[in-house]
Structure formats: C-alpha cells, structure tokens
Amino acid sequence: MINYEGKVVIVTGGTRGIGLETVKAFKENNAKVILFGSKQETVSTAIEKLKEENIEVEGYYPNLNNFEEVEKTISEIYKKYGRIDVLINNAGISANKTIDNTTCEEFEKIMKLNVNAMFNVSKAVIPYMKEAKNGVILNTSSMVSKYGQPAGIGYPTSKFAVNGFTVSLARELAPFNIRVNAVAPGITKTDMVASLPKETIEPLIKTIPLARIGEPRDIANAFLFLGSDMASYISGVVLSVDGLARA
Ligand code: NAD
C-alpha cells in the first residue's frame, strides 16, 4: 500500500469514469481528496454515490476555462488544508468526426478543455507547490497522443499538447522539487466504452496484445504510483497504460 496520509489531492473530471476511480484509489490510500466536476449536479451526485460507499470527499465545480474562478477555488482549498500535494488534470472530452465535418468551434472547445484548462489549474496550484518545494502534477493523456486516430482531429491534437506540456513543465519545475508526469490510457472501460455492443468490443480486444480493455483502476493505479514518493525520481514521462495497444 502507498500511504497518502496527510496529503491533499485534487482530481479534475473526478465525477465519473477514470477520474472517479482515481478519487476512490487515493481515498483507499488515506489521501484527502477533492474532486472537480463540470457542474453542481454531477458533483453532488458523485459525492452522494461515494458517501453510499462510505467514502467522504469534497467537490467543486469552477469553470476550468476561467482562470480567476479556478484560482479562487484553489486558494479556498489551500486556506482550508494548508497544502496541495498532488494535482491530477484529468477532465477531458474526445471527438470522432472527420475534419471536414468538424467546426472551428468544436475544435476550439476540445482544445480549451483538454489543454487550456490543464494550464489554468496547474498555474493556480504551482505557487503553493513552489512555496512548499514539493508537489506532483499528473495529466491524463491518451494512447492517441502517440499514434493519432483516423478522425476527431482535435482529440489527438490536444493530447499531443498534453504530452508537450508535461515534458516541458517537468523541466521548468524540477528545480522546485515539483514533478510532472502524464498517463496515456488505451481504451478504458468507462461508461461510454462499457455500453458498446459486443460486436464492437471484441474486434477491438483482438488488437490489444494483453487481450483486454483497460479498467479505470488500471489508470488510477498508475496515478497512485506516479503521485507517490515511490516515483520521486520520475518526472517528464508519459506512461502508457494500454495493454500494449498500438493503434
Ligand atoms: P468521462 O466522460 O467518463 O469523464 C470525463 C470527466 O471530465 C467527467 O468527470 C466530467 O465532469 C469532466 N468534464 C467534462 N467536461 C468538462 C468541463 N467542460 N469542465 C469540467 N469538467 C469536465 O471520461 P473518461 O473516459 O473517464 O476520461 C477521463 C480522461 O481520460 C479524459 O482526459 C480522456 O481524454 C482520457 N482518456 C480516456 C480514455 C477512455 O478510453 N475512456 C482513453 C484515453 C484517455
């Protein structure tokens, strides 16, 4: 077991899927966890659902594209707990239309959440981490950040940017003992994937050498490791957690 006792962890996009499982994994390892979601209802639903499993977390829903709002929320959290140890930038959306069917607004929307929001939340926590001379920033990338995908150009574009942000920020923040890494999941069984018919899933599994779809816990475990002192000499990596899938 990795012990996060006394540590404060923020997970964006923590209301469902990979983010929610990450929240649970950090709680099981004694962290104080704060989840961010896109709106009040989804945050309340996630908190209630966790309560039924005897998991107590706090939730916020700042507009991640509004830096002042994000900064205010992060400052509230810092005032309350006096520290922010791990930030997991996990909120993200994907796309699947061809470029000729993608509007400029759709492209911009995906970049704004997957890239600009990651910048905003990181920028807001970094002063506290710098002051503490300690911190970890983890970003959710994707397998498509290495191989691209045949449609939905905004998604791989944004995830290549996530990797660039990760590797570069790791260099900038290393002198402050702040580590920055990313996890690049392959196809992972969140609600959307779980609801796909067998006929769609089975051919997909055939392309994965480890012969299964990823579980949200597979990704959460990678975050648990990278956020911990066991990974204290690891920074600037994009860790594939994809069953060796090569799109
Ligand atoms: P999901 O749709 O189940 O969850 C997405 C989360 O992002 C939710 O908590 C939601 O509240 C949050 N979010 C969405 N729009 C938001 C907004 N405008 N503002 C704030 N928060 C917002 O998705 P998931 O599959 O769990 O994906 C989580 C991350 O993993 C994403 O970054 C995604 O790109 C990445 N990923 C997923 C897979 C997969 O197969 N599921 C594969 C590779 C990478």
Tags for this model:
48% helix; seven-stranded parallel sheet; binds nicotinamide-adenine-dinucleotide; alpha/beta; 247 residues; Rossmann fold
What layout of secondary structure does this protein have?
Elements (H helix, E strand, L loop, with lengths): L7 E5 L4 H12 L3 E5 L3 H13 L5 E3 L6 H15 L4 E4 L14 H29 L2 E6 L3 H4 L6 H20 L4 E8 L5 H4 L3 H9 L9 H12 L10 E4 L6
Parallel strand pairs: 1-2, 1-4, 2-3, 4-5, 5-6, 6-7
Helix pairs in contact: 1-9, 3-4, 4-6
Bound molecules: nicotinamide-adenine-dinucleotide (NAD).
Rounded to the nearest angstrom, the distance between the terminal CA atoms is: 33 Å
CATH topology: Rossmann fold
**Structural Rg:** 17 Å
What global shape is seen?
globular
Residue share in β-strands: 5-15%
Bound molecules: nicotinamide-adenine-dinucleotide
**Low-confidence spans:** none
Mean pLDDT across all residues, rounded? 96
Task: Encode the helix/strand succession as letters.
Answer: EHEHEHEHEHHEHHHE
**How many beta-strand segments?**
7
The biggest sheet amounts to: 7 strands, parallel
CATH architecture: 3-Layer(aba) Sandwich
What is the count of DSSP helices, taking H or I runs of 4+ residues? 9
Tally of structural domains: 1
The CATH class turns out to be Alpha Beta
Q: CATH homologous superfamily name?
A: NAD(P)-binding Rossmann-like Domain
Which structural class do the helices and strands define? alpha/beta
What is the helix fraction of residues, given as a range?
40-55%
Instruction: Output the strand order for the largest sheet.
Output: 3-2-1-4-5-6-7
